Amino acid sequence: MQQQIKLIKRPSGTPTKEDFEFAEVPIGEPAEGEVLIRTNYISVDPYLRGRMNNVKSYVPPFELDSVITSAVIGQVIESKSAHFEKNDVVTGALGWQEYTVVDQSGIRKIDTKLAPASAYLSVLGMTGLTAYFGLLDIAEPKEGETVVVSGAAGAVGSVVGQIAKIKGAYVVGIAGSNEKIEYLKNELGFDAAINYKTVDIKTALANACPNGIDVYYENVGGEIGDAVLPLLNKFARIPVCGAISSYNNQEADIGLRVQGYLIKSSALMKGFTVGDYASRFKEGSEALAGWLQAGKIQYEETITEGFDQTIDAFLDLFQGANLGKAVVKVSDIE
Q1: Contact assessment for residue 244 and residue 151, using Cβ atoms and an 8 Å cutoff
Q2: Rounded to two decimals, what is the model's pTM?
Q3: What pLDDT, in 10s, does the model give residues 29-75?
Q4: Is 42 within 8 Å of 308 (Cβ atoms)?
Q5: d(CA 213, CA 162)
Q6: CA-to-CA distance for 45 and 258, rounded, in angstroms?
């Protein structure tokens, strides 16, 4: 038998532990074309909060009394597939549980010689690809332009800022603690960083961006997004990746009307999800791996130890507790 985590109640506002349940279920045995995987790492991500609501979105909502799924790294311990061998390390969208039986089409091998396995949940995984395509395909930053990134110390934002620096931009990051501000400036090479919790965000942004804003990579929404709009330059671009400030709101999220600002600046504001670029994942993965190997980008992880701490690691996302990618380590890779 094994442990798995189910969603048993739709959260009202910020999720609580009472919305989830640990259940004991059989491990299962693989049939032809399937493999049995032991979970090593689980990715916890803000977007999962949206899937807990029973509303239409870009991915179906989680069903109640069913296992939660996200990106997982695991090791094959039994294979009935010609494509996978015992001890292969793989990734896929799998359940929050200790073991998974999965069809061979639902996983892919990863190269742990290139980077540690957990990196395939961050800089070489969905968050890295989200940063890559949102910035380079939608924003197309040019040398000397000003790029502002909200949620800049998170898994996506930290990679966005580093790619923008590679492209020669002046990069301003927004984050929520002094520790994160120091990390952005001293470790990742951001030109400026703002702790939105300790300053007036409008004044701080104006001071940090004396030449206006050419690109705003939106991860947060709310008052931070509002503060950016008056500073947009002509033909500014705004990739909208997330709006974590409103994910747990029980009332409508009301702020500035964007139309006038977009018209006056001839700006482009475009929402996207990384799945929009599925046909180009190989391109993005190769570019990110090349920069990682060359030392041009780095990444940080907040690793929580133990399957029994998975719910806590998820809830911590909404307190801003993570630096870089939040990951749960369930077991060692052998």
Answers
A1: yes
A2: 0.90
A3: 999 999 999 999 999 999 999 999 998 888 899 999 999 999 999 99
A4: no
A5: 17
A6: 27
